[in-house]
Amino acid sequence: MAMSKPKRILYHVLVTVFALLMIYPILWLVASSLKPNDEIFATSYSLIPSRLEFSNYATGFQGFGGTTFATFFKNSFIIVVISTIGAVASSALVAFGLARTKFFGQKFWFACMMATMMLPHDVVIVPQYVMFAKFGWLSSFKPLIIPHFFGTPFFIFLIMQFIRTIPKELDEAAKIDGCSKYGVFYRVVLPLIGPALITSSIFSFYWRWDDFINPLIYLNSPDKYPVSLALKLFLDGESLNNWGGMFAMATLSLLPVVIVFFVFQKYIVEGISTTGLKG
Amino acid sequence: MKKLRDNEHITGYVFTAPFVLGFLIFTLYPVLSSLYYSFTDYNLMEAPRWLGFDNYQRMFMDDEKVAKSFQVTFTYVLGSVPLRLIFALFVAMVLNTATRAVGLYRSAFYLPSLIGGSVAVSIMWQQIFGDQGLVNSFLTLIGIPSSTSWIGNPSTALWTLIALSTWQFGSSMIIFLAGLKNIPKDYYEAASVDGANAVRRFFHITLPMLSPIILFNLTLQTISAFMTFTPAYIISRGEGGPLDQTLLYSLYLYRKAFSHFEMGYASALAWIMLLIVGALTLLIFKSSTRWVHYETKGD
């Protein structure tokens, strides 16, 4: 059903206006990060600073009490990268086990996995805190990293869906050629599930980068804070007046997420459409 | 040795071992111990002291804040989830008219959803709706002078959170867009030939065909709306104010556990939440037989 030309132009004008309205708050955030401090709220409606104030980035980056944003970004990257590797690698193993081997209790564990996916995280927050306190893991990265090495239900499910599209005949052929199940996983399945692993990695990156409540609970010295928790410090007490610095660091904290999105767009859209992963 | 290696039961458990162990240690044990704590008085310093049903009784009889946070949370869930899904469906249908620019538009509408869960966006929202923020500045510009802080005003504070959640309709939109692409074009053509107008086509083709996807979205979005924490924490600076108007259930639970160290009471709160979310999920699935249409039924 092709539209007539005037109709098509009207369509694009309306959709573009609505799209701009949707991203206006983000543009406002970026613009505010470049405005002089006294101008941010005085000319709130305007997106164009009277002069570009890049010094907001310098003052914001200085951080709090001697800990700069270099440390916060480094902490975030350590937590995000290690937990993502752990989550994706373990999820791939589990997905293969559930999708391609027949063993006693397989259906039961699959049901457990689906139940874990639906379980509100709030239910385990308190007992996990008690448990990690007993392990001596408080004020370290351990509670933020180690649990991810035991498979993430969403990723297991996503990778399983992907493995199911690989013809079983490939497994059989490899078996006849003398491959064990481990060989089938390593030589046949693993090379074929790349896209699912990439999608999982991207979502893991997003979730861990944005994670706020876990660092809030487990970390108490600022030199261990990831970026998400460090941003909160702008709202606490004395530094309250550094609006420009706050907007600058907020903008900077979104940058890795936006870059990953534009580089891997295709995988993200496919990931959301096939499993309903929340982005 | 070869026999052991080829035993599929063993192989199966070797591959699933990470999940099985993780499930037992990080999910099952915590869920059960949380049930136990919910019947105790536990402040982390001393051993848990058995209380029976006292925590639950306190929740429903003596603690007014629980009732308040239920009210706030239900308003939030019932406000934000339908709004989000309606926006998502509407925009998906608009974008489904297949032009080459669809990819670009899709990215623009998805962007808020992509970054929406972050602390940065919560801070941004707090400033936009502040007394000197973008919203007031804009209202003043078009001749409606306003200087109230939307965040600080008890009657609007929760609605700024609902607006923030609605703004992030992008991921549901992408799921709907994928669903719309799967509806065969000839259904619409046949209906048009029979004289069905756009409204009838929407209610008799689009909506029934999308209903399984709507159900799926409804369930996931309801669960995640119930657990919303970050924006309420950031925007109200961890207090849930003004006048407890943004005291979402998760935030109240967090405050009980980690500001007051009432671990037993917080566990009782968590279990009631689990029961409510479980009941709601069941309700959505049970009621779905009335409104979800599955192709394979052949009707």
From TrEMBL, chain A:
Membrane topology type: Multi-pass membrane protein
Domain ABC transmembrane type-1: 73-264
Keywords: Cell membrane, Membrane, Transmembrane, Transmembrane helix, Transport
Entry annotated with the keyword Transmembrane helix: yes
Subcellular location: Cell membrane
Sequence intervals crossing the membrane: 9-31, 77-96, 108-132, 144-163, 184-207, 243-264
Protein name from the UniProt record: ABC transporter permease protein YesQ
Automatic annotation (TrEMBL), chain B:
Compartment annotation: Cell membrane
PROSITE patterns: ABC_TM1
Annotated membrane topology: Multi-pass membrane protein
Record-annotated ABC transmembrane type-1 domain positions: 70-284
SUPFAM superfamilies in the cross-refs: MalF N-terminal region-like (SSF160964), MetI-like (SSF161098)
Keyword field: Cell membrane, Membrane, Transmembrane, Transmembrane helix, Transport
One Pfam family cited in the UniProt record for this chain: BPD_transp_1
Membrane-traversing stretches: 12-32, 74-95, 107-128, 157-180, 210-235, 263-285
Domain of life: Bacteria
InterPro entries given in the database record: ABC_transporter_permease (IPR051393), MetI-like (IPR000515), MetI-like_sf (IPR035906)
Cited CDD domains: TM_PBP2
Family stated for the protein in its record: Belongs to the binding-protein-dependent transport system permease family.
Record's protein name: ABC transporter permease protein YesP
Source organism of this protein record: Paenibacillus cookii
